[in-house]
Amino acid sequence: MLRNIHIRHLAVVDELNLDLQAGMTVLTGETGAGKSILIDALSLALGDRADSGVIRAGQARAEISADFDLAGLTTISDWLRAHELDDDDQCLIRRTINREGPSRGYINGRPVPMQTLRELGEMLVDIHGQHAHQSLLRRNAQRHALDAYAGHQKLLDDVASEYRKWRSLRERLDQLTASRAQREDRLELLRYQVQELRELALNGDELTALEEEHDRLANLNQLREGSQQVLHLLIDNEDSALADALERAATELERLQGFDAGLGNIVQTVRDAAIQTSEAGHELRDYLEGLSLDPERLSEIDQRLGLIHDLSRKHQVSAQELPALQQQLEAELADLEDADVALDATTRELEACESAYRAAADKLRASRQRAAKKLSKAVTENMRRLGMKDGRFEIVLETQDNYSALGLERIEFLVSANPGQPPQPLAKVASGGELARISLAIQVITVGSGSIPTLIFDEVDVGIGGGIAEIVGRLLRDLGHRRQVLCVTHQPQVASLAHQHLQVRKHSGKKTTATTVTPLDAEQRVEEIARMLGGLEITEQTRSHAQEMIERGQLATSA
Prior knowledge:
The protein is an alpha/beta fold. It folds into two domains: about 1-150 and about 450-555, Rossmann fold; about 185-335, no CATH class. It is about 55% helix and about 15% strand.
């Protein structure tokens, strides 16, 4: 529920900080005082469109903050967590509207797009009357209201589950059917491509080995000449071979070691170098003896590498990817060769799944039809209690052919508010006052199954008075026992039934005008109800009447 709203520099409000309670709260005041300012501000906070014209004159920015209590509202808490906007079950919404630059929205201190504000707002507040958030005008909300009233969540889950299975099989069958239409041409191509790759028989390490061997054979002369030069330097030069020079150096150092034992490590190092140099020379001689030119092997490798690279270019993959491509094409070939078997099996599965889906959908339809009949009757009765004596409410279930996770029905609320008028879609009801009362009639019935915690009714008492106004008040008060209800009203009969009473007043000075909203205590409330009862002068008799109405209201229950 909404527990606090703070408004700053919005239209006729300079600054307002207001705590709200559970139950039914009414806003009253003189005509033109700006009684809808809270609703307008809340609508903006929840993402409604705004322009700089709503900013108070002389100010650069308007700001609205709304603090909601999420106790028991697990769906909204889960939504905040899913969007990474949660903050210890807090839900603080803030909206700024700037004279220069775009407006901004925040949820728990984090900036969010307006669409995100609107999405959250639709879960928190439902505004009925001549304003936005009239969720019952939307087909999906009407379907949700009926399903929630029916309480058949398991049937909905069953239909959704069977639909997901059907859709998966339908997609699989479409793929198989499309494959079959092109099957022969594709099979011929695949068989040829797979055969080429099988004949190539390229394994993962072969390409690297072939390229290394090709480099060696192609550069054989350079390898021989270079190796012979190095061999000459190491051991084959009788006059200045490196191994002999090192051996002579080691011998001389051994003689000098007799004068200084500190040369011992150096002697050993040079001796080791002489040995290793000699060994390297003999290994290089063996290498040269085995180094022979094989033109046929070089040609064979050239042909093999050429074939590999030709196939890689043909398939537009790297040579290293050819083995993986072969596996992929072989798998596709196997699928196509088994396509007829898979097609028949999938067709049978789909037929069985369609039967299961229709059976689940039929159960859901039957439950919806029963609930629609009961809900139509109950809402019709409430409409007549609310002054529409010839009012009639109907719910139409239109079966469609397209499968969906929500069943096979298109659901629409129809209403007739006047005698002789055929029922029309709820969205086409012309009178804002009638629409508000019809919405009230529906909400009173479905409130136990609904999920939106705060309901706002803007002047639902337009065009009514006397006993009907009292019935509206009693319905709102009863609704307030289960939800938070805010109501803008002109009727003392409605106001007297509230749990909390807010008075809206406009103060005009020489240069400025400002609206304030004040919670009324018991004595102030009597004065306000007396004012609403009318008359040029508030008498003791009027006050007594107002007191009596308030006392009766505290004991009121739904009529």
